[in-house]
Each structure stands twice: as structure tokens, then as C-alpha cells.
Specification:
The chain has 4 helices and 7 strands, in the order αββββααβββα. The chain folds into 2 domains: about 5-60; about 70-120. The protein has helices spanning about 5-10, 55-60, 75, 100-120, and strands at about 15-20, 20-30, 35-40, 45-50, 80-85, 85-90, 95-100. The protein is about 30% helix and about 35% strand.
Length: about 130
């Protein structure tokens, strides 16, 4: 495991990164143990997970193009559309769906955007 100095570790607190299409927030770090506590939402519940600080730093570096304002913009919200009592969202690659509700379609769209930013390419969303 890579050693991370205390000052570098402290600079990770409060930072955001994307992993597996979910947004993560670094809550605290302990440079003595090399462990970070990170908050994320999984299945509509907030969870705190433990990660090595070195992995957190790697994730922050790979998420340096993360653009959170795009997730809640009016333009993004308008990409969810209803057709024949089902919901879909539009992406560069086409239309995805159907989804049971507008909320589900918008949630899938946001995961799609995060996954695409995380991977540096466009990823096909998981329908949920």
C-alpha cells in the first residue's frame, strides 16, 4: 500500500469523486492508519464506506473532469421525456428506457452522466 503524507491526505476531505456511477464525498481521513471514510448513496440510502486513502486520491485524480453542475441543469432535466405512459432519457448515443417513472428516468440519466465522466467515455446505463 502506498504511503500518503498527512497534508496531502487532509486535502482530500470534502472533495467529490465518482465510482461505479455513484457520487462519493470524502468525510474524513486518518493518515496514521491510511484509511478514509467516504459517504455515498446506494439504493436511496446514504452509506459511509471505508477506503484506503491512496485509492481515494487515485479516484479524485481520475474524476478531475467531473462536472456536477451538468447533473442538475435545466438542459439535463429536459432530457427525460414521457412517451406512451413510460419515461425515457435522451443521450448522445440515443434514447434509453423505458423507466417506470420520471424520477427513475432522471436518476438513471444522472448515473449515466457520472459513469461517462468517470470512464472518460460514454457508458451504457443500467436500467433501474
Amino acid at each position: 500500500m502506498r504511503t500518503v503524507n498527512a497534508r496531502c491526505a487532509q486535502h482530500t476531505v470534502g472533495r467529490l469523486f465518482s465510482k461505479a456511477g455513484c457520487l462519493h464525498l470524502v468525510l474524513e481521513v486518518n493518515s496514521a492508519t491510511g484509511i478514509a471514510h467516504v459517504s455515498c448513496r446506494i439504493s436511496d440510502a446514504t452509506e459511509v464506506i471505508v477506503m484506503p486513502i491512496s485509492e481515494v486520491i487515485d479516484r479524485l485524480g481520475s474524476s478531475n473532469t467531473l462536472k456536477l453542475d451538468r447533473l442538475s441543469s435545466e438542459e439535463t432535466e429536459e432530457r427525460a421525456v414521457e412517451k406512451n405512459n413510460h419515461w425515457f432519457f435522451k443521450a448522445r448515443e440515443g434514447e434509453y428506457g423505458p423507466f417506470e417513472s420520471e424520477k427513475t428516468a432522471k436518476r438513471a440519466l444522472k448515473r449515466h452522466i457520472l459513469s461517462a465522466q468517470e470512464e472518460g467515455r460514454t457508458a451504457r446505463p443500467t436500467q433501474a
